[in-house]
Amino acid sequence: MTTFIYTLLKGGPAFTVEAVESGFLIHRVEGHDSGFNDIARAVMNNSGSEYSAFPRSDGCGGYDCVHVILHER
To answer: Is the pLDDT of residue 73 over 80?
Structure first.
């Protein structure tokens, strides 16, 4: 895994991480909408050969969760 993925797995002030069978979910922490949207966009922009990212809209033009599916090597 890349440094980017390891950094995500630690969580942060704007998001928490939940392990799931196929990878992990990144959840927004309430009150950190803007920061989480930045993280969600970075996750999507960095997806490719290592993982796929599927964001979930919060219904207000932002995101509240991103499902990251790790690709098998």
So the answer is: no
Q: List own/partner pairs for 1-6 with CB under 8 A and 24 or more apart.
A: 1/50, 1/70, 2/50, 4/46, 5/50, 5/51, 5/68, 5/70
d(CA 52, CA 49): 8
* Tens-place pLDDT, residues 52-72: 999 999 999 999 999 999 998
Place of tokens 């959840």: 27
Q: Looking at the chain, how many residues does it have?
A: 73
- pTM here is 0.90
